[in-house]
């Protein structure tokens, strides 16, 4: 992924044109930001700006509008607003790669940020989410709502703040299942895949486990009278 992105600023400079990546998660964005000082000949901006999770990096030797890289589609339904997973599933069902899809925001309608290159295809072919018919239109980037995440508070006690122990406490998976998921890179800490079961959790991290969603770890761990560790966490509720 990074190897491909490193080619983009050179292409932008050589051809005096804008180039852009696929959508990056916050961990991938951090990796790219660390490399930007090596490309002073082009401007780089992360789109959409502001409090968004998934972004593309747009390289250009001149100021370029964000709309050159992304589009916002609004899918309206007459019934209940579909859940995040149903919206994503309907897009993947059309053969769209996940990397071409940015943030999905269920609100008064279903808002989706996508790469500009696939917007017209979706305007024509995206016609339903689950069993609900939808009407799709392109809307200005600035009308994209901020996603309001809801977290369900819980707490757990573990022997130590190791990644495998914390994941097991949250997901209720067996020790072997947790070990397997970590080894396969299916567990992320602050969006970074971690393959070490003994990775230490310090507090404040965001954990994601494929198939189980996300959990936000509390800021501190407290030792119990029996020498174990208690921590609080919140699990992300489906929109």
TrEMBL record:
Phosphoprotein is among the record's keywords: no
Top-level taxon of the source organism: Bacteria
Ranges for domain RNA-binding S4: 161-218
Keywords, ordered alphabetically: RNA-binding
Official protein name in the record: Photosystem II S4 domain protein
Pfam families assigned: YlmH_RBD
Coiled-coil stretches: none
Molecular function as annotated in GO: RNA binding
RNA-binding as UniProt keyword: yes
InterPro entries: Nucleotide-bd_a/b_plait_sf, RqcP2_RBD, S4_RNA-bd
